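Request: Give me one sample?
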Amino acid sequence: HTLEKEREDLKIAGCWVHCRRRFNDALEVIPKAHRKESILHLIMKQIQAIYREEGKLSDFSTEDRLMQRQLVVKPLVDAFFAYLNGKIREAFTYALNQESYLKVFLEDGDVPIDNNASERAIRGFCIGKKNWEMIDTVNGANSSAIIYSIAETAKANNLKPFDYFEYLLTEIPK
């Protein structure tokens, strides 16, 4: 690839067998009973379709093969890369970049596998944010956030928010 950058008259061609092999190796890790449900299975099917259409062109002249590749094979290749560059790439990249963090729960019995409890706790706040549009100062927003945080913390600890606020407002002045 370095030579290609140095010489304008050189173009490197990739090998679809090597590309396919990587996906096939990844697919082999999945138990046979679940392979057909896998995204990797769909990717292998896309590569298979590219090979099937390319295989039909072996007896064509160079010019006709090029024309048919542009008409039939190119849309399949473009769809393949669009698929990989879309949500799948984002999902794989996210998971790989988060690997060390996603494994933390394996090292500590108190760490939950997800943050759904936190997400549920702030759901009401997110839904109710339209109700708080009248908060038009930074201090008002900070105060609202503090009060909401205290209420949700009380709920997360199986306390009644009203009773907890009453306790805090009674004890803090002391």
